[in-house]
Amino acid sequence: MRMVDVIEKKRDGYELTDEEIRFFVKGYTDGSIPDYQASALAMAIVWRGMGKREIATLTDAMEHSGETIDLSGIKGIKVDKHSTGGVGDKTSLALGPLVAACGAKLAKMSGRGLGHTGGTLDKMESVPGTSVAIDEKRFVRQVNEIGLAIIGQTSEIDPADKKLYALRDVTGTVESIPLIASSIMSKKLASGADTILLDVKFGSGAFMKTIEEAKKLAETMVDIGDSLGRDTRAIITDMDEPLGLAVGNSLEVKEAIATLHGEGPRDFVELVTEAGAIMLEQAKIAKTHEEGVALIRKAIADGSGFEKQKELFAAQGGDVSYLEHPEKFKMAKRILPIRAERHGYVSRIDSLAIGVSAMKLGAGRATMNDLIDMSSGIILGKKVGDKVEKGDVVATAYTNKEGIDGVLKDIHDAFELSKSEVAVRPIVHAYIRK
Q: Is 26 in the active site?
């Protein structure tokens, strides 16, 4: 088999056989297929697309290009969730403890952030002492003992995706549903969980800008999981404004703590409740969605979710006193209120502008080698639908940097005001399952 024949076949709009797809993945992973041929095939896929069988085979081949995690030593159904990313997305820090408090087993591997703010691992590490580098044996033992663990992915998982992702980033082939879906799902499947809940976001702060694009990606990923024997479901959620009020690592951890005390922002509480209910259905703990919602709400009200959050951090070396006394988190030296220059109703908050501004304040990375300032970020003072008077604080910037007047203006300009009242939209717009 020759790679040039595979490229030409896809270029001309034909479906690739399973053997051709596996030949490509194996050859690109071991280096026998060069970057220029891989990029040519990726571009052909961008233009010609792939069918359901092709995407499933590509995902399966990538999943098995390296190590897969064996979670058979964990008792019960292992659940996992994945978010396509957004601004203020601290969901795992509240959702994980809540589903575990209800009896589910959450075995989650996460990544670090590049861009707006840190990823889940960075946010966890803002609690002093927390380790996210745990070997597989300890990972399994921890999930058995306390019901959850959140750790970093090992370098041996899905090497095909690591190579292909880096190539797509520099060859203009990122925006392809088959390539995006296979990239996400191959990593999640290799992580070994029995069920997967996908939180696919749309809007200005998300990769998918429209709800139609988000639904197409979600449906593709659910099809992949279903065809490969995993209970995979998806929710389509709004990222046309930041999630919750906090954007930034320590700030988001504090908001997750507050949420587990029953003091979370409306949209964030709605998301963790809806997502948690679905995960409890997947784990066979709740028979109906309504029962799942009731269990999640109870775990917030009785404090068991917060106790489970403390167990998570304690098991991974974190100083639990920071969870019990969030005022211990280090504050940025400069705390700068941003005020409205006129009155009205918030009609939109540009998530991307808020996310980029948070990064410029120190909360994110422009390159993988950048250091994150855990104390920096943004707290929103208003959300979509809120009434604003001239002089009201719409946001507060936290930073240790000087010379940021332009960033403060960008934060101000991210708030769009309407003269008339604006309806508040739900955070969850659709639920997709087989």
A: no
pLDDT score for 205: 82
Catalytic residue among 22, 187, 188, 201: 187
Catalytic residue among 92, 183, 191, 376: 183
Chain segment 338-347, per-residue pLDDT in tens = 999 999 999 9
Looking at the predicted structure, is the pLDDT value of residue 368 above 70? no
User: Domain range for residue 384?
Assistant: 331-418
The yes-or-no answer on residue 161 being catalytic is yes
Catalytic residue among 22, 78, 82, 123: 82
> Is pLDDT at 89 greater than 70 in this prediction?
yes
Instruction: Output the domain CATH number for residue 382.
Output: 3.90.1170.30
From the candidates 78, 163, 168, 254, give the one annotated as an active-site residue: 168
The DSSP-derived string for 311-360 is: HHHHHTT--THHHH-GGGSPPPSEEEEEE-SS-EEEEEE-HHHHHHHHII
Asked if residue 116 has pLDDT above 70, the reply is no
Do 230 and 195 touch, CB atoms closer than 8 A? yes
173 phi/psi in degrees, rounded to 5: -120, 25
pTM equals 0.92
Does residue 163 have an active-site annotation? Answer: no
Average of per-residue pLDDT across 286-314: 98
CATH assignment at residue 312 = 3.40.1030.10
